[in-house]
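User: We ran a pulldown and think these components assemble together. Before we commit to crystallization trials, I'd like a predicted model of the whole complex to look at. Sequences follow.
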Amino acid sequence: MKQLVIKAFGDANQLVLAEASSPALATNEIRVKMHYAGVNPVDAKTRAGLGWGAEAIKDRLPWSPGFEVMGTVLEAGSEVNIHQVGDRVFGLLSGAGYSKQLVVPANSLLRVPKDVSDEMAAGLSLAGLTAWQGLTEHGLLNAGERVLISAAAGGVGHLAVQLAKDLGATVVALASPGNHDFLHGLGADEIVDYRDDQQLAALAPVDLLLDLMGGASGRALLSYVKPNGRVVTVPTITAEEVIAAAEAKGLKATGMLKHIDNQQLASLVRAVAEQRLRVEVSRVYPLAEGADAHRQIETGHTRGKILLQG
Ligand SMILES: NC(=O)c1ccc[n+]([C@@H]2O[C@H](COP(=O)([O-])OP(=O)(O)OC[C@H]3O[C@@H](n4cnc5c(N)ncnc54)[C@H](OP(=O)(O)O)[C@@H]3O)[C@@H](O)[C@H]2O)c1
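Assistant: Here's a predicted model for the assembly, 310 residues in total across the polymer chains.
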């Protein structure tokens, strides 16, 4: 069974296809043929040795990245009654999604509804849960409020735009001009080129900033938040500095780490099935070209999601 692994932290060339043994199946597990795995910035940051992800696996190399998967059940353990052979399943894993086959607890993956494509299901879990939890659990977004979403055209951002609209908020989205039509199509109310100081200066203040850039960009956006407004800064590596700057301005600020919640994920995939939420997949790479996919995600200018095909 082939999987993409890193043997040491480093650049994208560290990702190599390796032969791995296929583990035996426990009674509560399923064996899944991976069709698609989502590629996320955390995959590349961890591969490079950065952040909490690298800290967690540094003593367990070689490591196979990949937290978001979609595939078909090949085999089910004797106690599994929620999935059958042939079911299309998807969800958020703790790693190793970049593998032709996976063995996981049956209850870690959900059934893909018939009206949802393999690709949309594959790109939903990590980015969708982050967007939802950022807006609701941490951002406490209410209908009628204004929310500013940076990196609005990216994996998390393009889902956050749609979810915030669905919650009844007015959505202000930041993106380069090439993504403005895309964001109009997703329902953003105001779309601003983040490199255009005049457009930025004309922005009316917002109740909530969903900061998907972090660092200096996140700090600069604090001036568009209303007094007593709220800030959720999503990139973990720079969270402390953005929170400190926000608190110095009297804003309520928090970082976040998305968590697995399969009830929330079921709601998100229902929204996709009902065409209230769309996962934009801008490119699919063969598994063997995982290094190219990592180079793309590291540009910081990916539209929507990119996937690996198993
Ligand atoms: N804490 C957590 O649990 C958690 C979970 C998920 C993600 N994250 C983090 O959240 C961040 C966003 O993730 P993602 O998957 O959405 O990333 P992504 O898909 O790589 O984001 C790409 C987008 O960023 C936009 N962008 C680049 N520079 C920008 C700028 N200066 N201002 C505004 N937009 C800019 C690009 O738009 P243009 O091409 O138009 O410039 C592009 O569409 C990453 O740092 C990721 O690691 C954290």
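The chain has two domains: 2-124+279-309, 127-255. That may be worth checking against your pulldown data before setting up trials.

User: Thanks, that helps.
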